[in-house]
């Protein structure tokens, strides 16, 4: 079996440092009537328009969740334990601000395909769409781009910072390998309160690295958004004979004889990688979206927020 096939793309070399990425903002006003649902309400510092789970006296009890190692024993509902013999944490209701953290893959493989939009432009458009909804509700968010390292921004809020974010993403340098495990180690100490974390990536990384990152971050409200191009999933029939490939992460070039059998192996390897991501998401009980860049960005945003 061809090793590492899911990390391969074909494209001409290009200097993306001098290229402005095209981020579609034409659909944003269509999102005005939507809010971002919060499956497990999050705790934050500033007031906003959402419900959170900050624990304290004088708050109305909302519901319970299962006890996780590291939770304060003071928050255990011992009366419920006496009835069920299971440990649950009490959750209270209080108006608080939503903390949204978007981790956006800016590794070299996100430049596939050559034509617009490439995966990075599409992922950026989706990130901006979700940020727009968050911004409209006067909540805080952060978009951090990552490859081998993480490029942070401060917590953002309001229209001016939103417009600046679009401009910054359009000019960012996209290069390097995806290393989600290092990204998770780097971002984890920066997130001071319980947050919603969206990872938008092509996930061309070792499954062990992805599993480690999910384990590191899943105590927040973690969502995986897998962006791919259809030609990565199934090689076109026009790709035939001896073909020069460029590794999407390392830029290494090599030639391969492509026929029907290779196409089958290629597709099988891609599906195997997706199945591994499915299993990781299932094991940690987190949402995992598989998104082709052929989909309209607005449809993708609505799918992610549960309105599609």
UniProtKB/TrEMBL annotation:
SUPFAM superfamilies: vWA-like (SSF53300). It holds the Pfam family DUF58. Residues 63-275 form the DUF58 domain. This is DUF58 domain-containing protein. It comes from Methanosarcina barkeri (strain Fusaro / DSM 804). The lineage of its organism: Archaea, Methanobacteriati, Methanobacteriota, Stenosarchaea group, Methanomicrobia.
């Amino acid at each position: 079996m061809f090793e590492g096939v899911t990390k391969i793309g074909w494209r001409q070399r290009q200097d993306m440092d001098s290229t402005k990425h095209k981020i579609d903002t034409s659909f944003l006003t269509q999102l005005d009537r939507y809010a971002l649902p919060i499956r497990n309400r999050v705790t934050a510092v500033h007031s906003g328009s959402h419900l959170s789970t900050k624990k304290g006296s004088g708050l109305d009890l909302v519901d319970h969740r299962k006890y996780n190692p590291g939770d304060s024993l003071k928050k255990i509902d011992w009366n419920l334990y006496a009835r069920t013999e299971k440990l649950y944490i009490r959750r209270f209701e209080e108006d608080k601000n939503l903390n949204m953290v978007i981790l956006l893959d800016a590794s070299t493989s996100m430049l596939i395909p050559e034509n617009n939009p490439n995966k990075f432009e599409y992922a950026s458009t989706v990130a901006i769409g979700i940020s727009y909804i968050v911004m409209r509700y006067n909540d805080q968010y952060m978009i951090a781009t990552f490859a081998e390292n993480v490029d942070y921004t401060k917590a953002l809020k309001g229209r001016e910072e939103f417009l600046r974010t679009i401009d910054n993403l359009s000019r960012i340098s996209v290069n390097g390998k995806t290393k989600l495990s290092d990204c998770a180690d780097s971002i984890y100490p920066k997130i001071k309160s319980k947050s919603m974390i969206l990872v938008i990536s092509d996930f061309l990384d070792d499954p062990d690295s992805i599993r480690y990152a999910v384990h590191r971050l899943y105590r927040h409200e973690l969502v995986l958004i897998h962006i791919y191009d259809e030609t990565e999933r199934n090689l076109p029939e026009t790709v035939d004979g001896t073909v020069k490939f460029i590794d999407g992460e390392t830029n290494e070039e090599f030639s391969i004889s492509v026929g029907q059998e290779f196409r089958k192996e290629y597709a099988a390897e891609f599906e195997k990688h997706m199945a591994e991501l499915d299993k990781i998401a299932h094991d940690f009980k987190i949402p995992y979206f598989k998104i082709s860049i052929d989909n309209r960005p607005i449809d993708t945003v609505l799918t992610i927020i549960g309105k599609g």
